[in-house]
């Protein structure tokens, strides 16, 4: 019990001495040991790394989960060391609503069929989003959190120890200065000077040792940057994969809708019969018809007679293929990424498509798969 009381009294005395030293430094009444410029630069670099890591981490969390309530829930589960329950993505929820709507409104109607098509695409988009969130969390968010909750806490602890050692050192310097000033007045203070010098040597040794430990940790920030750089590459890779998947899913959906006339042309009877005064031309102009190459072909014939297709008067252009493309039928031209082909358009052709030629082969190609060259 006596030992514990003495230790508590000693700790209280050290704390009081440090508080006095710190206060006097703030008011300019005491000298302060300054760290060298290199050490100060290491401290500033470490603080910047910590601050920007926190901001990047928080904003990435917002990107992956825009719902604040959901983020709070995930944070609480993480702190309680419990598994976060699986959550339906917005795309998957939209797909569910569309499928239920199609079931109720009639899955065989043009609108119902289209709802089912879009529902399947939204379901795939939702699954791709789920994979992206999972991958980004593991490869990017987790390393950033590990730095803030691991390495940075260690650095902060050693910096606090260094601050205490510096305060002790400066307090010893102040005591030695006072002892020497008193010695000048009377020779009775020699023992006090010796004691102050001994305390100063011990404080200087402890400060130097702690400064070296802290410096090594601060220099390790360079390794942290290398690790975060690697994680950043992984994050960009997962994001690229995600958006490429979304792009392919939407292109496939667009192709499906383009082959489904009911999606664009109403097949139901009008709510009221047209007025007898309405001319055939006016009535035709009100029908939402999308012009395509297929509409130019006579009924019963192929949508695109490749042998009869020739470049338009506007001429041809070269194009570089961005992605592989598999032809859906004989009217389309299969593409390989990075190859060069000749392209041109035809009057009345869907603006999302061009005629592509490679050697003696020709067919329709999607514009979104091409980079047109001047």
From TrEMBL:
It comes from the Eukaryota. InterPro entries: AH/BAR_dom_sf (IPR027267), BAR_dom (IPR004148), Endophilin_B2_SH3 (IPR035640), Endophilin_SH3RF (IPR050384), SH3-like_dom_sf (IPR036028), SH3_domain (IPR001452). Residues 179-213 form a coiled coil. Its main location: cytoplasm. It holds the Pfam family SH3_9. Residues 314-374 form the SH3 domain. It is found in: Cytoplasm. Belongs to the endophilin family. This is Endophilin-B2. It comes from Urocitellus parryii (Arctic ground squirrel).
């Amino acid at each position: 019990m006596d030992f514990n009381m003495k230790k508590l009294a000693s700790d209280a005395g050290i704390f009081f001495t440090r508080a006095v030293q710190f206060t006097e430094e703030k008011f300019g009444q005491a000298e302060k040991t300054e760290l060298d410029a290199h050490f100060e630069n290491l401290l500033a670099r470490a603080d910047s790394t910590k601050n920007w890591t926190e901001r990047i981490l928080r904003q990435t969390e917002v990107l992956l989960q825009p719902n604040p309530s959901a983020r709070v829930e995930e944070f609480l589960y993480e702190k309680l060391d419990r598994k976060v329950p699986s959550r339906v993505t917005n795309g998957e929820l939209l797909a569910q609503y569309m499928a239920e709507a199609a079931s109720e409104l009639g899955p065989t109607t043009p609108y119902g069929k289209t709802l089912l098509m879009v529902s399947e695409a939204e379901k795939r988009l939702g699954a791709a989003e789920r994979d992206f969130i999972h991958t980004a969390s593991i490869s990017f968010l987790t390393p950033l959190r590990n730095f803030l909750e691991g390495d940075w806490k260690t650095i902060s602890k050693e910096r606090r120890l260094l601050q205490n050692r510096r305060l002790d050192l400066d307090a010893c310097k102040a005591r030695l200065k006072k002892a020497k000033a008193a010695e000048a007045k009377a020779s009775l203070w020699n023992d006090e000077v010796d004691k102050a010098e001994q305390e100063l040597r011990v404080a200087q040794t402890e400060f130097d040792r702690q400064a070296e430990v802290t410096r090594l940790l601060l220099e390790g920030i360079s390794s942290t940057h290398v690790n975060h750089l690697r994680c950043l590459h992984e994050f960009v890779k997962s994001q690229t994969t995600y958006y490429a998947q979304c792009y392919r899913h939407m292109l496939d959906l667009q192709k499906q809708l383009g082959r489904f006339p009911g999606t664009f042309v109403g097949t139901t009877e009008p709510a009221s019969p047209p007025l007898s005064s309405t001319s055939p031309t006016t009535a035709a102009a009100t029908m939402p018809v999308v012009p395509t190459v297929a509409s130019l072909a006579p009924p019963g014939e192929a949508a695109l007679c490749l042998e009869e297709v020739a470049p338009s008067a506007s001429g041809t252009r070269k194009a570089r293929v961005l992605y592989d493309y598999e032809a859906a039928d004989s009217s389309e031209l299969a593409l390989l990424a990075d190859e060069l082909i000749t392209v041109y358009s035809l009057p009345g052709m869907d603006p999302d498509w061009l005629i592509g030629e490679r050697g003696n082969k020709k067919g329709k190609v999607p514009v979104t798969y091409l980079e047109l060259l001047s």
